[in-house]
Amino acid sequence: MSLVCAISNEYPEHPCVSPVSNQVFERRLIEKYIVENGTDPMNGQPLSEEQLVDIKVSHPVRPKVPSATSIPAILKSLQDEWDAVMLHSFTLRQQLQTTRQELSHALYQHDAACRVIARLTKEVAAAREALATLKPQAGLITPQAAPASQPAAVGPAGVPMEISEQVGMTPEIIQKLQDKATILTTERKKRGKTVPEELVRAEDLGKYRQVASHAGLHSASVPGILALDLCPSDTSKVLTGGADKNVVVFDKNEEQIVATLKGHTKKVTSVIYHPSQSVVFSASPDTTIRVWSVTGGNCVQVVRAHEAGVTGLSLHATGDYLLSSSEDQYWAFSDIQTGQVLTKVTDESAGCALTCAQFHPDGLIFGTGTADSQIKIWDLKERTNVANFPGHSGPVTSIAFSENGYYLATGAQDSSLKLWDLRKLKNFKTITLDNNYEVKSLVFDQSGTYLAVGGSDIRVYICKQWSEVLNFTDHSGLVSGVAFGENARFLSSAGMDRSLKFYSL
């Protein structure tokens, strides 16, 4: 509704109504008329300013003046409105551009902050690793050359071998090894006369079936478990090394992961569980051997004994020293407490990579496998090659000493399993496996009664008769590790299908 002044016939700025004539007026005009005439201009009746009633209008719309109804006036009005819209649009574009610049600057700052955080995290991780490596070595004595009276190491044919002496096999260490070997030999002779009563019999072992399978221990993106070991004092604790560079401690009874140990920069190919301490060991092609605390979940020592990938790992019976073999053609004997390499030897006459290593149960001799099909027996105290076992036609993949100390089992990439008599230094049994069978793991049980083979499948042989009592084909990939539980009450296996399996009655 539009109000029009009865005097000017235009839209009033301050409208008011006369109660005398009921007409709308512009207040300033009607007030002037009342001052001059004192009457209502419409009917001439008396009217005073006090009688006028103001009209309150919300959002008044001023009507177009008559002159605005012409075409030029309408075009000008449209042009003015268009200009106003364009100015408003320009202002909005300026505000949008400013907001975009502010957002871009904020995103740049966020990206820079993320880069700084990532770099600092990497530096902290490197510092922690360096601290773990250097801190245990802070109190070491200065390495000394071997005593002049120490004989040079020679091979069985009198060929000299290179010895890289780091700290040296001191008389105290040699005596410690000898004392331990004497004790172990005496105990073995007592045990060797009888088979443990708790040991599972062969007929019961033949009834074993898969009772559990766990596939979530290692990453699925880089599948494969490459190494397996059980804690000798508590075989419910299982240790695995994976292609995902991690070491995992698993509790068989609780069916849960106890610890996931990260630090290797390449896959983990060898693992060992310490028999009396909550400590585990691992080796990798990244050239390092790591000592881990299971309770702390961290690396407490890094042993840098080799310049190429570490291929084999074995713990001495004292629990204080590690034997390692490498693609750099050396074997090394290291102190796990200090991380120092005590001695490092290579057979210059052979000139080929070592593929595996294993201590004899007495700890005074050990065996290594080579890429040129040789099995070499070494005297640890003298650091000499005392025997060679030729016979395989492919790189040796695994070796295992029987607990009785008399037998050595070896497997190679020739689809065969050979048994050697250490007393007569000869091969007394060869088990020919299926064509293209790959032997990846060999292990005797603690009594020396059974031998387990892991590779294309799982096979268990009874010693002396060397007849097969078990064969499992449950893994969908190569079996990389097998191990017996206490008194062979169960058998565990791990494979490239990323699964850990248990077999028992």
Beta-sheet strand percentage?
25-35%
Largest beta-sheet details: 5 strands, antiparallel
Number of beta strands: 32
Number of helices: 4
Structural class: alpha+beta
- The average pLDDT is 86
In short:
The chain has 4 helices and 32 strands. With 505 residues, the chain is an alpha+beta fold.
General description of the model:
The protein is an alpha+beta fold. The protein has helices at residues 27-37, 71-134, 171-192, 202-205, and strands at 15-17, 24-26, 53-54, 162-163, 209-214, 225-231, 234-242, 246-251, 256-262, 270-273, 279-283, 289-293, 298-303, 310-315, 321-326, 330-335, 341-346, 354-359, 365-370, 375-379, 384-389, 396-401, 407-412, 416-421, 426-432, 439-444, 450-455, 458-462, 467-472, 479-484, 491-495, 500-504. The strands form 8 sheets. Strands 4-17-16-15-14 form a 5-stranded antiparallel β-sheet, with no helix packed on it. A 4-stranded antiparallel β-sheet has the order 5-32-31-30, with no helix packed on it. The termini are far apart.
Based on the model shown, name its key terms.
single chain, 505 residues, alpha+beta, five-stranded antiparallel beta sheet
